[in-house]
Write a structure and sequence with these properties.
The chain is of the alpha/beta class. It is built from nine helices and twelve strands. The protein has helices at 24-34, 48-60, 84-89, 108-119, 136-147, 161-171, 228-236, 244-259, 267-279; strands at 10-16, 39-45, 64-67, 81-82, 94-98, 101-105, 129-132, 154-157, 176-178, 189-192, 216-219, 239-241. A six-stranded mixed β-sheet has the order 2-1-3-5-6-4, with helices on both faces. Helix 1 (24-34) crosses helix 8 (244-259) and helix 1 packs across helix 9 (267-279). The protein starts with 9 loop residues before the first strand and ends with a helix. Residues 1-5 have low confidence and may be disordered. Bound molecules: 2'-monophosphoadenosine-5'-diphosphate. 2'-monophosphoadenosine-5'-diphosphate is lined by residues 68-70, 72-73, 133-138, 158-160, 163, 193-196, 204. 2'-monophosphoadenosine-5'-diphosphate (ATR) binds next to helix 5.
Amino acid sequence: MTGGPRGSRALYAILGDPVAHSLSPAIHNAAFSAAGRRARYVARRVSADECGELMRALAMGGGGGNVTVPHKERVVPFLDRRTRAVAATGACNTFWAQGGEVWGDNTDVEGFMGIWQSAVSPPADTSPVLVLGAGGAARAVLHALLHSAGASVILMWNRTASRAHRLLDELDDERLRHVHDWRATAPAVVVNTTSVGIRGRHAPIDLEALATPPHLVMDLVYGKSATPLCRQAGRLGIASVDGRGMLVLQAEASHARWFGQAPPRGVMGRALEAASRGLG
Ligand code: ATR
């Protein structure tokens, strides 16, 4: 992979499947322009088999990028160096090269914490938290909830129960419990880390079927318009945030890893708003 026709522009990419809906190129390219960086950012739909090698090629070519659903765990063995967040979560969403080695970080952890702090401010009753999913994004969210948010009870549900059990065994924390049936729970906060809703059609759960409705829904998914889960929350009068805020925070952190400097303030948020309007 090269830097394109002008050659000298470093290439950054988001690697995942699906990625067609991704607003990462819009917000990263806006930050590259505003910071005067000779770089461009593209979306690449890649299979699990291609992802690790492509990640390494991009990094060693002087660029870098992000990894998204469903490859965040799969790329970890391809890294030469892992930050503490990657070591703790077993998932990577940001990569680059430094000193001839490919580094990986997980900026979803701080991205989620930033959104959590603003969404539950002033501090509200957040126990229990019901986390939907047990993939790479769930790993970042659970790490943030356990180690930064100080959650006291976290209920975890996943379509594939064995995957949830593996994660539970790995994290080995008594505040974390697996539930077979999300309907039997009465969460204060629901966090969706599954990819359900990306295509705008289905919600991962029916909020009305919960034993009692939550105060807050946090959907890591985002799309052209409100996600199915946030739409239902709105109809039921439940406060909700979708994944756009977290997208910006994790992207700002990624930019800082790549260039050692934060992007110009507010640029990514404004680019996200403009790109969302364009899509809608
Ligand atoms: P990411 O790295 O973005 O978290 P991932 O590791 O592939 O992506 O995880 C995707 C999550 O969405 C998983 O929890 C997955 O559940 P499974 O472990 O059962 O695959 C969940 N998911 C994906 N499609 C789903 C669907 N149609 N219904 C319910 N959960 C789904």
